[in-house]
Amino acid sequence: KQGVELIEQPMPVDMIKETKWLRERSPVPIVADEAINTSKDIPAIAEAYDGINIKLMKSGGILEALRIAIVAKTFNLDIMIGCMIESSVAISAAVQLQPLARWLDLDGPLLISNDPYKGAEFRDGHWIMPEEPGIGIKGIKGIDGIEGIDGIDGIDGIEGIEGKKRKKWNIGMMEYWEERKSGE
Question: Taking the domain 7-149, which CATH number applies?
Answer without folding.
Answer: 3.20.20.120
